[in-house]
């Protein structure tokens, strides 16, 4: 993106040490390679292929981004941002190419570009080009549903300091004529607050999954966290049909959206890889001075910690963004388009090899400090007080590096923030050693910004690395801060290495209904017919609350959408009791919106809580619905349900 220069990257890529040996499910990148130039003229001394020669064929001397999506019919759209002509004038806010190239090993070739006249790439979405009004309109995502093509764009009010810009709103434009002409829909927009510039949905990435389009989003600029919305795939232009992830479920109010991943995140791309059965997210982390990736088993996570995709010093050209090509979607080779800004703005085709990652679903970024590129501690780790990095000093538990804290007085800690699902159990582990005079060391997790301690271990003098384990429930929090810290009394130090955070196996949110704040069921639970919560009424199987469904006719049920991995076998259990006249109760799992039943068990009168169990295969689905309900055919009929587990 033009006019968003940042300092030249400096760094090296070091492989992360093995932490948690388990079945390989997560993935990690290696062997990053630049294949070809995509746009611009070949500069003196450059030897890689340049199949498109955009400066000569389309009067495109410089541009950036390169957002790729499958347009159907064996072709792909590729959307670019601010564009200059061969005379160096930045006279177009965006342009669009079409490609049918299926062999990316020798470069990415265009079939054509959308043109306003022969040999001139057309600006497809107009902008005012007035600073502090509408400086430009930049595409951030694209998708095709049926015969209609969609581009998510941001209306930029003005550019700010490096990595910062300010948007009026983001919106969706569409084309019904194969990309020749685009309409900026007047109401499919997410308006920014132009005094605080803090809307969560200003830059986006689209993923189509099942019947929905998932829209991952960040605020304007490169320093925000990642949020999520979804919409039925045929309703992309209906702003009222979008639902926003609140950490547990889907809500109508975008202000209640919670993070799915911690930034800083800029120029994001998200895709599903069927080879690994993982969602992949890429973005520029300017604080880490690198392009990074995360992966997850479901659209909502849990997302792995960041892994270095392109280290900061890889090209010396000031690279940013990694927009994945759909041809990568069933492969261990990931192709993506990357932008550089030095000596001019242009784009390049890249590839990396994806490998099974033996650290499994560890949610910590840089868990062993091996990707740190400078002795002062760097993002994603942060220091409070005095601390830093031991690099190649022989102090690490594994690998070459470890974190440390050291001071003569006060509180000193190494910290990292992580997204969690509310009211869910987690296990935090790490290895710590400390000076002989340490008497007040703490390893734990708390609410960010010096909030309440959720759970911590106290440790004293540890002459050898000693594993610390903290199990905790996230409570109402969607983001927590983990830390290793000491209260120093004289010269006191602690070293930390190999940190991991793993979510519990139970996938049911608020499984015992203990966080329900009223008699009405709320996220992540929802209902069919008449259902609610018995609060402190003495009816629970355990704890103080349980759910119920009760009416004198029709289907009445308690339900929850659960995100699962495709083609996996799951076991669902729960405890149920009923009224004596119940004859058609059902406990099971099915597809969303009244879809096919995956498995269920029928129960009739249960005078006491009785355990119900089913197993099912998730099929080709990333989300399913669990339920406990009854057909009230015999007058006033009720069921009570508690303590559900899905593993």
Q: How many structural domains does the protein architecture include? A: 3
- Residue share in β-strands: over 45%
The secondary structure category is mainly beta
Shape descriptor: globular
According to CATH, the homologous superfamily of the largest domain is: Glycosyl hydrolase domain, family 43
Helix percentage: under 10%
The CATH level-2 architecture of the largest domain is identified as 5 Propeller
Low-confidence parts lasting 5 or more residues at pLDDT below 50?
2-24
Main beta sheet: 9 strands, antiparallel
- Would you count the extended β strands for me? 43
Name of the top-level CATH class of the largest domain: Mainly Beta
Number of helices: 1
- What is the overall pLDDT average? 93
CATH topology title of the largest domain: Tachylectin-2, Chain A
Protein name: DUF4185 domain-containing protein
Organism: Robertmurraya yapensis
SSE topology sketch:
Blueprint: E1 26-37, H1 54-57, E2 65-72, E3 75-80, E4 83-84, E5 90-92, E6 95-99, E7 112-113, E8 115-117, E9 120-121, E10 136-145, E11 148-159, E12 165-175, E13 183-191, E14 203-209, E15 212-218, E16 224-232, E17 243-245, E18 250-251, E19 261-273, E20 278-285, E21 290-296, E22 307-310, E23 319-324, E24 333-340, E25 346-357, E26 382-384, E27 387-391, E28 401-419, E29 425-434, E30 441-446, E31 453-459, E32 466-473, E33 479-503, E34 525-528, E35 531-535, E36 545-551, E37 555-563, E38 569-578, E39 585-590, E40 597-603, E41 610-617, E42 623-631, E43 637-646
Antiparallel strand pairs: 1-25, 2-3, 3-6, 4-5, 6-7, 8-9, 10-11, 11-12, 12-13, 14-15, 15-16, 16-17, 16-19, 17-18, 19-20, 20-21, 21-22, 23-24, 24-25, 26-28, 27-28, 28-33, 29-32, 29-33, 30-31, 30-33, 34-37, 35-36, 36-43, 37-42, 38-41, 38-43, 39-40, 39-42
Protein name: DUF4185 domain-containing protein
């Amino acid at each position: 993106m033009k006019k968003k220069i940042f300092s030249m990257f400096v760094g090296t890529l070091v492989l992360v040490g093995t932490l948690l040996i388990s079945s390989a499910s997560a993935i990690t990148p290696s062997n990053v390679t630049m294949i070809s130039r995509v746009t611009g003229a070949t500069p003196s001394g450059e030897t890689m292929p340049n199949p498109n020669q955009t400066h000569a064929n389309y009067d495109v001397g410089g541009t950036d981004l390169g957002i790729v999506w499958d347009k159907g019919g064996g072709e792909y759209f590729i959307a670019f941002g601010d564009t200059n002509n061969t005379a160096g004038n930045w006279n177009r806010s965006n342009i669009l190419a079409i490609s049918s190239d299926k062999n990316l090993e020798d470069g990415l070739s265009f079939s054509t570009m959308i043109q306003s006249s022969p040999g001139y790439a057309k600006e497809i979405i107009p902008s005012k080009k007035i600073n502090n009004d509408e400086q430009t309109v930049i595409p951030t995502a694209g998708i095709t549903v049926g015969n209609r093509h969609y581009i998510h764009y941001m209306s930029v009010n003005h550019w700010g300091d490096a990595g910062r810009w300010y948007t009026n709103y983001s919106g969706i434009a569409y084309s019904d004529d194969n990309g020749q002409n685009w309409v900026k829909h007047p109401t499919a927009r997410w308006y920014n607050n132009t005094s605080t510039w803090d809307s969560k949905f200003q830059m986006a990435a689209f993923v189509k999954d099942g019947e929905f389009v998932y829209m991952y989003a960040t605020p304007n600029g490169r320093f925000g966290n990642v949020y999520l919305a979804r919409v039925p795939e045929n309703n992309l232009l209906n702003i009222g049909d979008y639902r926003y992830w609140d950490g547990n479920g889907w809500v109508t109010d975008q202000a209640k959206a919670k993070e799915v991943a911690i930034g800083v995140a800029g120029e994001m791309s998200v895709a599903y890889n069927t080879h690994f059965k993982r969602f992949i997210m890429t973005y520029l982390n300017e604080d880490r001075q690198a392009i990074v990736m995360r992966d997850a088993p479901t659209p909502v996570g849990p997302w792995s910690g960041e892994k270095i995709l392109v280290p900061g010093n890889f090209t010396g050209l000031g690279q940013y963004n990694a927009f994945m090509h759909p041809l990568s979607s069933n492969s261990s080779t990931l192709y993506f388009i990357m932008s550089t800004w030095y000596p001019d703005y242009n784009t390049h085709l890249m590839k990396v090899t994806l490998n099974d990652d033996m650290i499994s679903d560890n949610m910590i970024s840089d868990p062993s400090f091996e990707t740190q590129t400078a002795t002062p501690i760097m993002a994603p780790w942060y220091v409070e007080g005095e601390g830093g990095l031991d690099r190649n000093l022989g102090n690490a538990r594994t690998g070459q590096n470890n974190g440390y804290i050291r001071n003569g007085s006060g509180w000193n800690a190494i910290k990292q923030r992580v997204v969690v699902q509310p009211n869910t159990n987690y296990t935090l582990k790490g290895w710590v050693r400390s000076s002989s005079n340490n008497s007040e060391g703490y390893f734990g997790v708390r609410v960010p910004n010096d909030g309440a301690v959720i759970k911590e271990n106290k440790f004293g003098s540890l002459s050898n690395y000693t594993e610390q384990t903290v199990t905790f429930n996230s409570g109402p929090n969607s983001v927590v801060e983990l830390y290793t810290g000491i209260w120093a009394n004289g010269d006191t130090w602690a070293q930390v290495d190999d940190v991991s955070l793993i979510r519990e196996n139970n996938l049911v949110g608020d499984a015992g209904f203990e966080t329900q704040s009223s008699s009405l069921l709320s996220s992540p639970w929802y209902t069919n017919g008449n259902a609610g919560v018995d609060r402190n009424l003495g009816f629970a199987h355990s704890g103080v609350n349980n759910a119920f469904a009760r009416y004198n006719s029709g289907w009445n049920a308690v339900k929850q959408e659960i995100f699962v991995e495709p083609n996996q076998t799951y076991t669902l259990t729960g405890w149920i009791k009923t009224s004596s006249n119940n004859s058609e109760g059902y406990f099971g799992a099915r597809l969303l919106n009244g879809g096919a039943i995956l498995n269920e068990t029928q129960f009739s009168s249960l005078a006491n809580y009785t355990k119900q169990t089913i197993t099912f295969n998730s099929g080709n689905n990333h989300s399913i619905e669990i339920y406990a309900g009854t057909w009230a055919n015999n007058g006033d009929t009720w069921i009570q349900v508690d303590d559900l587990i899905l593993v």
